[in-house]
Amino acid sequence: MFDHSSRSSAADTTDAAVDLVSELLLGMRLEGVHYRRVETRAPFGFRFETPYGRAQFHFVAHGTALLRYADATLHPLGCGDAIFLPRGGAHDLVSAPDEPSCDVERFATETLCGNVDVTSACPEGCPQDDQVLVFSACMNFDLGGMRPLIALMPEVMRADTLLARQPEIEPMLKAMERETCTPRAGSVGVMARLADVLAASIVRGWVECGGDNAMGWFEALRDPRLGRAIGALHRAPGRNWTVAELAAEAGCSRSLFADRFQSMTGLSPARYLAELRMRLASQWIEHERQPIDVIAQRLGYASQAAFSRAFKRITGQSPGMVRHAAGSRRAAAE
Question: Can you give the pTM of this predicted structure?
């Protein structure tokens, strides 16, 4: 005999957790910084050195390839496959497991427009059936207040594992294959936007499937009481929350709430709020270029000095250092 009421309650809890995660992910930033169409044929080996803090996306439009990660793990890629590396890092696209690789920047490259290049390693007259076509994107990837989830994501995330749950991905893959293989007017812009959307869909699919190694986070969000409190923290990070106020949001005693919060997240409520504030501050400094005094006020600090001390205590850097480093990265990319 099935307990329909229990099943319904569990489904409602899961839906509520997904809704909360979706709300918390509204701060997600995923946008291409540099796109590259690679034309080659076997044997080949391209080395990608994705900068720190950037993600990498690859789509195989024609032919086959192997993604070889830093630990020599191989991921076979066939025609129509898309993968997302949320933490980027050094990796190779090769035609065979033991094929040596060379920095992709060292191959003949032509700029199509803006931030889109074509790298060609095909000899003249190469038969079309022998060609391998890959469209790649180096991306800014930030989850704002949910940034710790990036560290918990798999090193390599594949679109083909999501097709059963997200059938809308398949038409996007087909469209990207057509645009890459048969360039038309505006194809470059279409491919870039499709890459952005596909990468975001892969991230969303991982979240909706429960997050693999991030079960502590998702279990906390699925807990009706903790979920309400965590949601409140993310909606109003500038409020000077007390444990009593958060316990009231959760609908339980202060001691029960504090113990449950610590066991599920590994942090005290105060530490969680402090780290959340500094993740948001980093995003606002690096990407939105907001003045530090404005950020301090938004996050509930009485003065810029108090905010700067808290920022350095949590991150190990001053806000000014982060702003300077972000400016240097932008200048290097231009």
Answer: 0.71
